[in-house]
Each structure stands twice: as C-alpha cells, then as structure tokens.
Design a protein that fits this description.
heterodimer, A: 249 residues, mainly alpha, 12 helices, B: mainly alpha
Chain lengths: 249, 112
C-alpha cells in the first residue's frame, strides 16, 4: 500500500471492505448459504427462525449442527454442548486475527463486537487482505466486509428460504463442493509462513482420519494436535536455519 | 407464550451464546499476543489445522446430495485440482475452477 493511502478517511476504508462482498470467497459463501436455507426448510425451521439463526450464530457448521440436534428432539443443554464443541475452533481463529487487526488504542468492546463477524470466510479474508491496509484503518475495513457479509448472508436466507427446494438436487450437491475447494486454494495461496503450510497438511490428513476414530472431538483434536505438531516441526526448522546462519557457511 | 418463542430461545442460548463465548475468549487471548510472538505462531498453526480439518471433512464426508457421490470422484477432483493449482502458479480461481469442472464431468460420467 502506498503511503498516500494513509490519508484516506476511515469511512472510505469501510467501503473498501464492503466491496469485498463482490469477491470470490464472499460469493461462494453466499452460495453455500443458499444450501443452508434449503436444509433449514427441510428440517422444519420457520423462515423467521432460520433468519434469526443465521444472524445470531454466523457459523455454518454450528448452524447445521444446531438444526440437526434440534430436529432430533434433543433438549437445550444437549444442543448447547454439541454446538459449543464445534465452536471452540473460533478461539484460535479469532485470536490469530486480533493482533493484526487492532492498534494499541482499539477499544476491547469494538473487538468483541467485530469478533461475531469472524467465521471461516471472513477469517480467510482477514489473513489475506489485512496486511494491505494501514493498521489504524484495519478494524473499520474488516467491519465493512464482515458486517456487510453477515447482513447479506442473512438476507439470502430470508429470500431463498423456500426457493431452493425447486432446484434439481445435483445443483445443490455441486454448489456444496465450492466451499472446500475454495478454502483449499485460498488458504494455501495466502500462507506466508511455512508453519501455516505444515498445519494445512496436518489438518487435511487428521480431519477425516480422526472423524473415523473420535467423531465428536475430531476437529478439535485435529486442530490442537495437528497445529501443535506443525508448530514444533516449524520451530525445529527455524532453529536449524538460525544455527546454519550463525555458522556462516 | 413461551412455547411460541422457545425455538428462538434455544437458538439464542444453544446457538449464539454457545458460539460467541469462544469468539470473546479469542478476543481476550489475541489481545495479549504480539504480532511476532512465538505464541502467535502456535495459535496460527492450530487455527489453520482446525479450518483445514473442517474443509477436508466436507470433501470426505459431505452432507446432502453429494453424500451419494463416489468418494474417489470427490478426492480425485479435489486432489488433481489442487495439483493443477500448485503447478500453475497458485491462482485461486484455477484452484476453484479445475476441481469444480472435474466434479461436474465426473458426476455426469458416472450418471449421477
């Protein structure tokens, strides 16, 4: 980013973030949300309930789990447990973005509000684009993208709630595939540090493997275990590199 | 009265609260991390492994219609597509377009 861009107003950065709505990741997410509205309808949620759920949770896996447990007649405590287990991943996702997003003066209440808008798509958006924005405007820039995306996603649920069931099922299946292949490409392309690439490979291998072994805790185990192993491998690699430089070969 | 709003209460408690307490914890944790700290390396690794575990599971164990398609087709489309993406200079649109084209062709070929 050129130094000139520092003169731009906060509001203009909000709009720049908003424009991210027209990016590939946002469009892919909005398509997956169309799929969610069909799922909500089939599972017996009313339009108002589906809309409220989309805005209040704003994490597709958690929404799918909650709809599933509610439909199975589980009580509120069992629903809470199932959803909260899938949402533990939010902590490292949010924690890894916050140091890049804030300045020393960013108030904590603002970060707490903004954190609601961090889900996988906006996390990828944050790790790929925040570095191009002057630090003092990063929070407002993210707000422009995150809040707009959440509101648009919620609107998509409201509009498509009973339209999707008219689509041929193969279309929904193909659309479903967009999300994972997009994450594969964009997360790899945005990885600046080798540790991210090692963690990427760990997650891909451990996710499906652990799903067969510990279906309830698979994602959590894959994240903590795979992430920790990736970190240790990377630390050893960095140490070796430092020692190599120290020897001045 | 309560029964009418019960679903909304379940969504607020078992959905919103169950998810956002972890986001808030992330804010408090992240707020103490320096951008170049060793701890942030670890947090980044854990976050990436988590997201990729979710992603890989979507390919191996999809929900809905795609669940009825052959596993080899989904793995092949994603795997070959990713290899093409790596070989052609890591452009994201290639990483999306190639696997999607392979999946559609494959589904048509197996008569899905």
């Amino acid at each position: 980013m050129s130094p000139v861009s520092d003169d731009r107003s906060a509001l203009s950065w909000f709009f720049t973030g908003m424009r991210g709505l027209l990016s590939l990741p946002a469009l892919i997410l909005l398509t997956s949300i169309v799929g969610f509205s069909a799922f909500a309808l089939e599972s017996g949620l009313t339009r108002a309930e589906a809309v409220f759920m989309s805005f209040a949770i704003w994490a597709l896996p958690a929404q799918v789990i909650l709809v599933g447990t509610m439909a199975s007649g589980a009580n509120i405590a069992a629903c809470f447990l199932a959803v909260t287990l899938s949402s533990i991943r939010m902590t490292p996702m949010v924690a890894s973005v916050i140091p890049e997003m804030r300045t020393r003066r960013t108030p904590i209440w603002l970060l707490l509000i903004l954190s609601h808008f961090i889900a996988i798509t906006s996390w990828v958006f944050a790790i790929t684009t925040l570095r191009n924005v002057p630090r003092e405007h990063r929070a407002i820039y993210f707000a422009g993208f995150g809040v707009t995306l959440t509101l648009t996603g919620t609107l998509v649920v409201a509009v498509f709630y009973d339209i999707v069931s008219a689509f041929p099922p193969a279309v929904a299946g193909v659309l479903f595939f967009l999300t994972p292949v997009y994450f594969n490409a964009s997360i790899w392309a945005s990885a600046r540090q080798p540790v991210v690439k090692i963690a990427f490979v760990m997650g891909v291998i451990l996710g499906p493997t652990l799903a067969l072994i510990t279906p309830k805790f698979d994602v959590l185990c894959a994240g903590l275990g795979g992430g920790t192993v990736a970190y240790l491998i990377d630390r050893a690699r960095r140490k070796r590199k430092r020692m190599g430089q120290g020897a001045k070969r | 009265m309560i029964a009418e709003y019960w679903t909304f209460i379940v969504i607020a408690v078992a959905g919103f609260l169950a998810t956002d307490i972890w986001r808030w914890l992330g804010v408090f944790t992240g707020n103490r991390l320096d951008e170049d700290s060793e701890a942030l390396y670890w947090v980044r690794a854990v976050a990436t492994a988590l997201v990729m575990a979710v992603t890989a599971k979507l390919i191996v164990f999809p929900n809905g219609t795609l669940a009825g398609s052959p596993l080899w087709l989904r793995l092949g489309a994603a795997g070959i597509g990713f290899a093409v993406f790596l070989a052609t200079g890591r452009k994201v649109w290639i990483g999306v377009a190639v696997p999607m084209a392979l999946l559609v062709t494959g589904l048509w070929w197996v008569g899905f």
